Amino acid sequence: MTLHVAIIGGGASGTLAAAHLLRRRSSPERLRITLVESREDVGCGIAYSTDQSSHLLNTRVHNMSAFPEEPEHFARWLERQGLSSGGGLEFVPRKVYGRYLTELIAAEPNASAVPRLRIVKQECTGLRPHEHGVEVALSDGTVLPSHFAILATGYCRDGRHEPGLDDPWSRPEKHDLAAPVVLVGTGLTMVDMVMSLLDSGQSGPIYALSRRGLLPQPHRVTKPLKLSTADIPIGTSLAYMMHWLRSTIRSHETAGGNWRDIIDGLRPHTQMLWRHLPHESRGRFLRHASSLWDTHRHRMPPASADRIADAQASGLLRIIRGHFQEAHRTAHGTNITYRPSGSREPLVLEASHAIDCRGFGRLSLPTKNRLIQSLLDDGLARVDTLKLGLDFDKHDALVDANGCSTARVFGIGPITRGSHWEITAVPDIREQAARLAELLLGTPGLNESAPRRETN
After folding, report:
1. What's the whole-number mean pLDDT along residues 40-50?
2. What are phi and psi of 313, to 5 degrees?
3. Is the same domain home to 190 and 71?
């Protein structure tokens, strides 16, 4: 039997899923993969399609291998490209990582007559699972038959954004460099936009606005504390968990350690923590603690941190704590209305333009993503209770409107955030890709029957 897997989405998640399936196949004749992606730059996605050298990975090279069982895979690829400096704190441009991902699924020079992977540059508009497989509907009206489908749609960007704010990845190429610019949000997207503005020679003030004014913490050399599940209060309330985390960090720092050692030591356990966190505590975490967690968990490279600090010291970059209210375009630019923290009176910032740097929030419905909306309309999927993405079971199988796991459709990457929370970084997605490949292919050889249908 030749197993045919359709992967919907050709960004980092879809590419890693394809790479793990290809690596675990027993022979080319026993596996076919079709990757469906309407964008031209297959393999990069939004995260790694930037062409700016100052947009760096926020994870060290030695943690960015596509394959967890081969941690030096990316480092060796860099060496072959003549790009590795061999430093222990190496953060390479994201566009370089995009090239690495693209090469993972590139055709081999001496490939067999059986194609290892086919790329269909179209939009997937719907899926129809049945007993023996999945029919994948394409935008040209054709239908692609497959045995399994993997949803790798990323954050489901649907083109919807705050009126008056520019999309960070399609912002105006030219503007008055002496005019003010407002960045709404102070996370890693803001860091990228500041790097771009500095590279372009921005001399006017850059205002970065967020509710708490928190910046991503810089990376430093760490020694992750080895934690077992017995050390962590899994299944407790958010309040108890946060109390344990703060006291553990205090004790560690008193002994001469660094808070980063604790956060990094928690990394292998964060998905389990999320799964066992009571639902009410998950909601409270998203409302009150997620921004604080993100600034400590998702850090910026030292080089970026230095440039941010210099821009702040010179007065070029100004961090504002306040609540964004609205953006209004004028004949001369954009006005941002916000309420400063601790004040009831709104203020207005005048700028040449304003960029939405708040990242990706909840899945808003109806969505312009035709595939996701089709799955919801047909009852083949449901939004997870916190509206972070679609609902998936513990095996990453799609859960339908009745709460049953779909035996033929799976998810990978940010679309599964509701189940895993920490599933946006490569070290987490590659583990998920390995599990999916194991499930669909089996070891050794192919698993020729569909995974068992479960009730969620």
Report:
1. 83
2. -60, -35
3. no
Position 47 scores a pLDDT of: 81
Q: What is the pLDDT of residue 456?
A: 43
Residue 77, C-beta contacts closer than 8 angstroms, at least 6 positions apart: 100, 103
pLDDT at 329 over 80: yes
pLDDT of residue 27: 73
Q: Tell whether 194 and 52 lie within a shared domain.
A: no
pLDDT tens-digit profile of 438-456? 999 874 444 444 454 443 4
**Domain check: are 39 and 129 in the same one?**
yes
Interior CA angle at 134 toward 410 and 442, to 5°? 55
What whole-number distance in Å separates Cα of residue 409 and Cα of residue 151?
Answer: 7
Average pLDDT over residues 108-128: 79
Q: So what's the pLDDT on residue 161?
A: 65
Residues 11 and 149 in one domain: yes
144/84 same-domain check: yes
CB 145 within 8 A of CB 137: no
The alpha carbons of the chain give a radius of gyration, in whole angstroms, of: 23
- 173 within a domain of the structure (yes/no): no
Omega before 218 cis (within 30°)? no
In the chain, the N- to C-terminal Cα span, in Å, equals 30
Which of 318, 286, 263, 307 has its CA nearest to residue 421? 286
In the block, residue with structure tokens 């008056």: 164
